[in-house]
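Weekly structure sync, notes
Attendees: PL, DS, HV (note-taker this week)

Item 1: DUF1272 domain-containing protein
DS walked through the input record. Source organism listed as Aquipseudomonas campi. Sequence as pasted into the shared doc:
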Amino acid sequence: MLQLRPGCECCDRDLPPDSPDAMICSFECTFCRDCTEQRLHGHCPNCGGELLRRPIRPAAKLAANPPSSTRIHKPGGCA
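Item 1 (cont.): predicted structure, written out as tokens:
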């Protein structure tokens, strides 16, 4: 089950579960589309993996499978 982390690790922008701008790597490091395209050039600064659009969990499933509330913000770790 994806964690659906709540924000971008680079700029701390909010990324709610239904955001089409949330991008993740295979380890679920989470970034916004702007940081992914302009700062990270499509690659995770943590693992080097490809960043792809995070799937959107259907709203009806969020109550039983809520998103994470743990924020990770590492502005110094972004390329």
